[in-house]
Amino acid sequence: MLVNTFCAAVNGLEVNTVKVEISMTRGVQFHLTGLADTAVKESHDRIRAALQNMGFKMPVMDITINLSPADIKKEGSGYDLPLAIGILAANGKITCDCLNEYMMVGELGLDGKLQPIRGALPIAIKARAEKFKGLIVPRQNVREAAVVNQVDVYGMDSLMEVIQFFNGSKEFTPTVVDTRREFYDHQDAFELDFADVRGQESVKRALEVAAAGGHNLIMIGPPGSGKSMLAKRLPGILPPLSLSESLETTQIHSVAGKLSRDTSLISQRPFRAPHHTISQVALVGGGNNPQPGEISLAHNGVLFLDEMPELSRSVLEVLRQPLEDRKISISRAKYNVEYPCSFMLIASMNPCPCGYYGDPTHHCACTPGQIQRYMNKISGPLLDRIDIHCEIQAVPFAQLSQMQKGEPSAVIRERVIKARNIQTERFSSLPKQGGLGRVYCNAQMTERMLHEFAEPDSDSLDMLRMAMERLKLSARAYNRILKVARTIADLAGSEKVESMHIAEAIGYRSLDRGDWAERGV
């Protein structure tokens, strides 16, 4: 007897429908074909134990299973459920003729319970695209899959429930998630607020500019000056996620297995802060079974690299291409996957190995050579991709002891959203920029856009020329200054980039100054 069931293979963010073909004839052997990995091949033992512990017996037959299309690699344990249902149907234990109307995924425990799988959300999107009537997933994955409308999503606890569902011996109701209510109800629930930060007004301003224009930023300051504290509050002033951005971000976290059981959609921009010992693969993604890395998990959010010079040089250099292209392509001998990674890079570092170069309250024991070698751990091409360099000092006790709170994040966020709306309107009529897609913020502007939207006047040009000569600014800083100046002008509600905006933007290029390691901060 020949029976077909359907499941899905996830490769990166791409999902392919897989037809599970089960044929039974006389014999005693078990054959599994279709480019299955070890986890899929081990499904035979899990299915046999699960059936026995639920009162069924593995058919004593020659069972041949083909996972079609056979040229796509099948990985993971999510194929257990469709294989088990197909075997039972071929053996006459499931009598319905509607198996081809449902897609199903799930790992089987030896007791027959269904265990969660990765990628339930993109699988649900594929099930809808392929016009399946319903999708059956483990109970732990049902909320993320039920976000997708126009397809019935059923969360099951065990193989027995799936059997009862297809045999019609028990009624099951598809899970319904009010996507918009849950999404919008949690958008503003931030635990950290800029109101709790005493002092550091110049750094708050720099972070506001970075958030308004989507600029990358690096903070340079001694230990204990509040770099990490300020960076963790940045998501609270970023514009809220749109539904499309949330769906895209949630898919990445779903594939990586990072969604909790109660999560349906990610409603806040992600904030990823990997340790400085992170490897290249963990940062960009990949591995034997390809998974998204930290830069993709930070998609539409913030990637925070604390103590940036302590990261391996090779790890830092792999950031260069993703920062420019807003996507990461991972090519290996056995696979080729692509993940989106449009994120804001926020980094922090000490000004020297001991951390107290230029600090008026501590003595720095580092020589100029040691400071220069420390700074050289961040290459020029990588530094060129960071728009804002912000110097930060420890807050004096007089400011720390003040009871008056600072400006709340909600107030700053309103200004950021207003500036972003200006940019959205400005770039809405522009065509896509090749493989980069559409431009959404000032940090993504091309050189041609700079000439159109951020062309400085004669006074600003004179100021730029004087700054580059006197402060020994590098030539690569020119475009970055114009992008940041355009954002500052948007925050001020100005249509033109004026000299005051250029002046503030020049102040955010500290590390481009040729004499930086020879002066006090």
Features:
36% helix; elongated; alpha/beta; 521 residues; single chain; five-stranded parallel beta sheet; four-stranded mixed beta sheet
Question: What's the SSE blueprint?
Answer:
Blueprint (H helix, E strand, L loop, with lengths): L1 E10 L2 E12 L4 E4 L4 H4 L1 H11 L8 E7 L11 H11 L11 E3 L2 E2 L5 E2 L4 H10 L4 E5 L3 H4 L6 E5 L2 H9 L11 H7 L15 H13 L3 E4 L6 H6 L10 H13 L15 E2 L7 H5 E2 L4 E2 L1 H4 L4 E4 L7 H5 L2 H6 L1 E5 L4 E5 L3 E6 L18 H8 L4 H4 L4 E4 L5 H4 L8 H19 L19 H7 L4 H13 L6 H15 L7 H8 L15
Parallel strand pairs: 3-4, 5-8, 8-9, 10-17, 10-18, 11-14, 14-17
Antiparallel strand pairs: 1-2, 2-4, 6-7, 12-13, 15-16
What would you say this structure looks like, in words?
By secondary structure, the protein is α/β, with parallel strands linked by helices. Helices cover about 35% and strands about 15% of the residues. The strands form 6 sheets. A 5-stranded parallel sheet has the order 11-14-17-10-18. α8 (about 200-215) runs parallel beside α18, α20 (about 460-470) runs parallel beside α22 and α21 (about 475-490) packs across α22 (about 500-505). The longest helix is centred in the last third of the chain and has 19 residues, at about 410-425. The termini are far apart. The model has no long low-confidence stretch (mean pLDDT about 90).
